[in-house]
Design goal:
Layout (H helix, E strand, L loop, with lengths): L2 H7 L3 H16 L3 E5 L2 E5 L3 E7 L5 E5 L21 E5 L7 H17 L9
Antiparallel strand pairs: 1-2, 2-3, 3-4, 4-5
Amino acid sequence: MTQVENFIYEHEDIQREIMLYFHELLIGLNLNAKLKYKIPFYYGRSWICYLNPKKNNYVELAFVRGNELSNEQGLLSNKGRKQVYSIEFEEIAKIPIELINEIIYEALLLDETKPYESKNKK
């Protein structure tokens, strides 16, 4: 079992189920998973997204380059952040799968077509 899978299985039922769902989906899209900042990040050429289990039993699916996504679905929120946009889930049944897939595919296309430029570079 990988570090990311160990991390997922350490969590309670609902969070584990949601994170496992997204982990399998993202790995199935040939993304690499690594623990960074004590949470699972998913990479293509650069960071695509991460899963963040919250204390309120939600799981946040966050897109590192969310500010560059169209957010046509209206699901993503920046929560005061400049770059990262996310959506929180409290149960599998409430995941709008088709809309989330659209966001994920847009994030993958962005990763493949436009190199990530760190905002910290001068």
